[in-house]
Amino acid sequence: MTQERSAPTSPEARVAAVVVLAAGQGTRMRSATPKVLHTLGGRSLLGHVLAAVEPLDAGATVVVVGAGRAMVEEHLAQVLPAAVPVVQEEQRGSGHAAAVALDALPDLEGPVLLVNGDAPLLRADTVAGLVAAHRAAGSVLTVLTAEVDDPTGLGRIVRDADGAVRAIVEERDATDEQRAIREINAGVYLGDAAAIRRALGRIDADNDQGEQYFTDVLGLLVDEGAPVGGHVAEDPDDVLGCNDRAELAARRRTLNDRVLGDLMRSGVTVIDPLTTWVDVTCSVGPDAVLEPGTQLRGTTSVASGAVIGPDTTLVDAEVGESASVVRSHCLGAVIGPEATVGPFSYLRPGTRLARGAKVGAFVETKNVEVGEDSKVPHLSYVGDATIGRGANIGAATVFVNYDGVAKHHTTVGDHVRIGSDTMLVAPVSVGDGAYTAAGSVITSDVPPGAMAVSRAPQRNVAGWVRRRRPGSAAAKAADAAESQAQASGNDRSEPTGTDHDQ
Ligand code: UD1
Ligand code: CA
Questions:
Q1: 187 lines ligand 1 (CB under 6 A)
Q2: Are 281 and 263 in contact (CB under 8 A)?
Q3: Are 348 and 230 in a shared domain?
Q4: Which of 79, 117, 191, 369 is 20 to 30 A from 97 (CA-CA)?
Q5: Which residues have C-beta within 8 Å of that of residue 124, sequence separation ≥ 6?
Q6: Do the domain assignments include residue 106?
Q7: Which residues span the domain enclosing 399?
Q8: In this structure, which residue's CA is closest to atom 20 in ligand 1?
Q9: What does DSSP assign to residue 432?
């Protein structure tokens, strides 16, 4: 369902290099994190831009870094190790950043795509449209533009009477007449490397900000008489930048609407799109249902017919067909087909539930295999264990996996019945078909078919309450029960014995 992948790139769509401008401070974010590393929909701003240009299969991808460069470089190494970071020591403007990038690619010839690092809604299709328009017109430089309702703060596209692009003017440098223009510069450009290099050598910083604007390259090429074009994006959302947290939230909402729209069109039921959040990196099969308050993050996949939520977060989880996960938090868990989880379960990494398994209310699991049709229905901790098929783990069982130094493994066989409130002190194994008695502390292996009992025999101290808590409500209740029993000839005041199993 990922929405940024399009048809495979045709060979003529190849560009020689992609340059991402990502050195800016992002002052308006007011953050210790560089702007391009802020996230939405499962990727950083930079990650979305890189995904949008990935299908171009460019010869080289260069990312201009500066502000917070160590963090940006580390992130880049994770998301696209093939990309080359180039350092812009001082942020002297987008034109200066482009020049620094091209200096790092001295042998580069042919078409180069330059893109602002803060355009997270840019789509591969839109980039492909820019490439196609550029080729069709035979231009030296083509700028991606959009018609927007509110162009505030953005560069305006100045066209002549024939509709030819003449210049890009930043808002702060624009005349009133130019400010009225609603066609804006998206900050995505495709042009001939040599021509851009030449023009960059001539730009100045003679503007309101005293910066070297990449946008001036366009005017310089027009003055040279070079063919320059503008390609209007079909969806103006594609080009929206992200300069502060309010814009980040707005972009996140738009991106989520797109993801959910794609899912619903592919046959997924989304009960409440306003409270359902799905990363672009997730997949959901047809006839799955996402209840209100569902969040799917990371590499999560949900197979068809599964029901997720309400109020459930799945991170890097895999949910099988027709499984259900209700009011739960699952990290890196594999939930088999027809398995049921929740309400209020916490599944941690390494959890693998086989077909039809059940993990119920207030159960935490970690690094555990639960076999087919086995159940952990209530109030348990299950860590570092293998549970066979058809087993039942009684309420409030704890797999005691940690001795304060190391973690140890517990093995529970097929069709085992673990009694409620059993402590399974690892390393330990319970053989196939064995039982443990409720309240047992199991410290040594239980053979197949055995019943393990490990608890103090019960001792009833008759009359204790009447003697030690005279006059209390409990004593009165006991007296009443005793006289009633005597009256009915059924005197149960004496101890009735202890554990009948012993
Ligand atoms: C820029 C465009 C504007 C366009 C808008 C679209 C310029 C001069 N203006 O404005 O016409 O409408 O994008 O969102 O380019 N950067 C560097 N090094 C620098 C300065 C900037 O790498 O020294 C990078 C930034 O990280 C950013 C990009 O260049 O990714 C654009 O810079 P920014 O300051 O955000 O430009 P805008 O004012 O948004
Ligand atoms: Ca910007």
A1: yes
A2: no
A3: no
A4: 79
A5: 4, 5, 6, 51, 52, 53, 54, 55
A6: yes
A7: 267-452
A8: 93
A9: T
pLDDT (tens digit per residue) in 324-348: 999 999 999 999 999 999 999 999 9
Nearest atom, ligand 1, residue 216 CA = 8
Nearest CA to ligand 1 atom 31: 116
Q: What is the per-residue pLDDT across 231-280, written as a single tens digit (0 to 9) for each? A: 999 999 999 999 999 999 999 999 999 999 999 999 999 999 999 999 99
96 lines ligand 1 (CB under 6 A): yes
Tens digits of residue pLDDT in 418-471 = 999 999 999 999 999 999 999 999 999 999 999 999 999 999 999 999 999 999
Q: Is residue 313 part of a domain?
A: yes
Threshold 0.70, pTM exceeds: yes
Same domain, 220 and 86: yes
The reply to whether 354 and 388 lie within a common domain is: yes
Question: Which segments of 80-143 does DSSP mark as H helices, in order?
Answer: 94-103, 124-137
Amino acid at 68: G
**Is the domain of 103 the same as that of 210?**
yes
Query: Given ligand 1 and candidates 18, 116, 239, 240, which is best to mutate, with the most ligand atoms within 8 Å of its CB?
Result: 116
For residue 184, give the ligand 1 atom closest to its CA: 12
Residue 392 in domain? yes
Q: Which residues contact 45 (CB under 8 A, 6 or more apart)?
A: 35, 36, 37, 38, 39, 117, 118, 119, 120, 242
Shared domain for 131 and 50, answered yes or no, is yes
> Residue 255's closest CA among 234, 280, 272?
280
Per residue in 282-291, pLDDT (tens digit) is 999 999 999 9
**What total of structural domains would you count in the chain?**
3
C-alpha atoms less than 13 angstroms from C-alpha of 82 in its C-beta half-sphere: 9
Closest of 128, 32, 20 to residue 79, by C-alpha: 20
Tell me how far apart the 2 most distant CA atoms of the chain are, in Å.
116
AA letter at 165: V
Establish if 466 belongs to a structural domain: yes
Which residues are part of the catalytic machinery? 378
Tell whether ligand 1 has an atom less than 6 A from the beta carbon of residue 22: yes
* Gap between the Cα atoms of 430 and 473, Å rounded: 44
What 8-state DSSP symbol labels residue 492? -
- C-alpha of 31 from chain center: 21
